[in-house]
Amino acid sequence: MYNFFSPDENELRSVIQTTLEKQDEVKSVSTIQTGWTNITMDVQGEKQAYIFRFPRNLFFANMIMKDCLFCNFLRGKVCLPVPQMELVFNQNRPFSVHPKIVGESLSSKMDELTNSDQEKIVDDLSGFLMQLHTLPLSCKPDEITQTLGEFLDDLAGVHNGDYNFSYHIPLHLMEKDRSNLKLVHGDFHPGNILIHEGRVSGVIDFAFASLSDEHADLGRFVGRSNADLGHALVEAYQRKTNKLCDQKKIDDVVDVFKYVEYKYVQYMQSYHPEITISDFVLDAVASAMQKFETV
Questions:
Q1: Can you identify the CATH homologous superfamily of domain 9-99?
Q2: pLDDT tens digit string along 230-250?
Q3: Terminal-to-terminal C-alpha distance of the chain
């Protein structure tokens, strides 16, 4: 049984310094306020920058471990950079550290993209997804056994309050035929995609990595994107795979994650008010709130 961290900034700074003392000198440490499942620290060293992530509870500690495992598995198998993650323990508490990937989140820039930028970015992302979805399951890490629907069911256990699991049913139905399952990122939205100089510089946060239908990643992206960018990715993915996507499956995944995000924002606002939730997410949740609260 692993322990987890509390948001004591002085203690976290001490853990960071101890972790880096043999390889780099810490110059500055700042908290990334948008970290949800983890207390995320942006660390500038003498030699390079790092990202440290400290899980907020036991479930998130296990997610950190899966993220590290899956990133290390993917390295060299996909066309885009993923974090070079190291799993570290402090007093039986797992946390992760990796060199910071240069770039800004796609979510912060997607409304500023030129047509040329968008074309290059969706070409990068569709190629990445095609490679991920065609990796043979025979080579996957043994620890990756859950479907995305099963993982989301477990994630719901973090929430303290009513949770309507029937909203997950469309995803479970997609995953019913296990012979057609693919490896998926699971949380493939613009906030987990980094861009630099008009191209994708990295894909991060594989803590939701699971087995699912390939439409799970497409739907997650579409639900968090603007209409043009979401449509462009689906079109590029269809061209890359030479296969038509199922719009109903994409729409179903969008709805599943609307509910997941709605409940998650409720939880964070109640138990972690110090976390900054982006206006984009809050707007999306607000538009769905009336639907969920009247059911």
A1: Phosphorylase Kinase; domain 1 (3.30.200.20)
A2: 999 999 999 999 999 999 999
A3: 38
